[in-house]
Design goal:
Blueprint lengths: L7 H6 L1 H16 L1 E2 L9 H7 L10 E2 L2 E2 L5 H18 L3 E3 L5 H12 L5 E5 L16 H4 L1 E5 L1 E3 L4 E2 L1 H11 L3 E5 L9 H11 L2 E5 L4 H5 L13 E5 L10 E5 L3 H15 L5 H14 L3 H22 L13 E5 H5 L3 H10 L2 E2 L1 E3 L13 E5 L1 H5 L4 H16 L4 H17 L8
Parallel strand pairs: 1-14, 5-6, 5-9, 9-10, 10-11
Antiparallel strand pairs: 2-3, 4-12, 7-8, 11-12, 13-16, 15-16
Helix pairs in contact: 3-11, 4-11, 5-10, 7-8, 12-16, 16-17
The protein binds D-serine (DSN).
């Protein structure tokens, strides 16, 4: 197991929280993390995250702050911005968003007036709550219209419908991005349609930022996208946080800066910005490209096992780090039953609705899983395929306690043979 975090003061002062941290370390060490939005950060990222920068207020931007004592905050924020721009090949980066949702809120308010229209992917077809789902506050402020997949079994986006909607609704922003979609997006088609209707193109690459940084999949910027929002955790393997990148328009970048602060947020979380800078430094290393490529290979290895077992995969398979399986349609086990049974054997993933799901979100038809965290552990195609085989065994016989006991043991052995690394450089 990777060495436990050094927390002597916490252990002395607050045994309950210290014990919970030890419990989580043990859970992460002896179980497999297949939630596609999770990963393990390096000890260096963790140290920056847990540093004295948590004490500091720094409203404003480097060189233009509203509080004194900014000698060192400016150093970390400037480094984070410089590294982000290098990593994603763009002119401007705002590294202050606290996470992906506030990054999207700040982006909408930077680019649109209340009541204006945003065209984004439907949640049930892979989009995200912050892309305008009716349960969000945002949906009362802006007019969100949606596009979908043409065919959930190929994952192909219905670009004819998207174009018709764009021509009719005249959106200010066309948004490409997702949290449960397994295919590459054809970014150039979004740009073509946006140019036709005069819309700004924004990609929410929260899930695939690490794959883009590692050049394993295409970047929306290469196709001419104007703006990218993202989280800095997930495949990018940094701390919890968000970021907004602007390819080249100074006018847009200025609007985004104003929208993040003072428009939406107060003091940025400088400990997280320091940790982001460290993570971007890691992602700039040549070995990060190998990591990103291996994430894809491992996902393909899992895809092959599910296909061999005739389990329906939404999108027909995967081009990225995640898979979405219709376990209810294929095996008669609900998403919730699957999640619970797999939890019992030490495999963590999440139940998920599938496109046009006949079931409800709290017990849907699907499960969503992916390979960023197991790839960080050093899994290759061989181990990934084995995990998929074990998952299928559990899914086919999810109430068999003896089977689950045996598989729990095999998962523990796999984990112990592949400890979570402490460093990536
Ligand atoms: N919660 C994240 C995910 O799991 O995809 C997105 O917000």
């Amino acid at each position: 197991m990777s060495s436990p975090q050094h927390i002597p003061f916490l252990e002395k002062q607050d045994s309950e929280i210290a014990a919970a941290i030890r419990g989580e370390e043990h859970r992460e060490s002896e179980g497999l993390e297949l939630i596609p939005s999770e990963n393990y950060v390096s000890k260096a990222v963790l140290e920056a995250d847990g540093s004295v920068f948590t004490n500091k207020y720094s409203e404003g931007y480097p060189g233009r702050r509203y509080y004194g004592g900014q000698d060192f905050t400016d150093i970390v924020e400037l480094l984070a911005v410089e590294r982000a721009c290098k990593l994603f090949n763009c002119q401007y980066a705002n590294v202050q968003p606290l996470s992906g949702a506030p990054a999207n809120v700040a982006m909408y308010f930077a680019l649109c007036e209340p009541g204006e229209t945003i065209l984004g992917m439907d949640l049930s077809h892979g989009g995200h709550l912050t892309h305008g789902h009716p349960v969000t506050h945002l949906s009362h402020v802006f007019n969100f219209v949606r596009y979908k997949m043409k065919d959930p079994d190929t994952g192909e986006i219905d670009f004819d419908e998207l174009r018709e909607t764009a021509l009719r609704e005249k959106p200010k922003v066309i948004l490409a991005g997702f949290s449960a979609y397994s295919r590459n997006l054809d970014y150039s088609k979004f740009v073509e349609i946006a140019q036709e209707v005069g819309a700004i193109t924004v990609a929410d690459m929260a899930h695939v930022a690490g794959l883009i940084a590692g050049k394993a999949i295409p970047s929306p910027f290469d196709a001419g996208f104007d703006v990218i929002t993202t989280t800095t955790h997930k495949t990018l393997r940094g701390p919890r946080g968000g970021m907004i990148l602007t390819r080249e328009s100074e006018e847009i970048a200025k609007k985004i800066n104003k929208s993040v602060f003072p428009g939406l947020q107060g003091g940025p979380h400088m400990h997280l910005i320091a940790a982001k800078a460290v993570a971007f430094g890691e992602a700039l290393q040549p070995n990060f490209r190998k990591y990103a490529q291996q994430i894809l290979k491992n996902a393909k290895a899992m895809e092959a096992v599910f296909k061999k077992n005739d389990i329906r995969l939404l999108g027909g398979g995967t081009d990225n780090h995640l898979l979405l399986a219709d376990v209810y349609g294929s095996l008669g086990v609900t998403g919730k039953e699957a999640q619970t049974a797999l939890d019992e054997v030490g495999i963590t993933l999440n139940m998920n609705t599938i496109a046009d799901d006949p079931r409800k979100p709290l017990d849907p038809s699907g499960i969503r899983f992916g390979t960023p965290a197991i790839t960080t552990r050093g899994f290759t195609e061989k181990e990934s395929a084995r995990v998929a085989e074990l998952m299928v065994e559990v899914l086919r016989d999810h109430t068999n306690e003896d089977l689950k006991k045996r598989i729990r043991e095999e998962i523990r052995e796999l984990c112990l043979a592949h400890p979570i690394p402490e460093s990536f450089v």
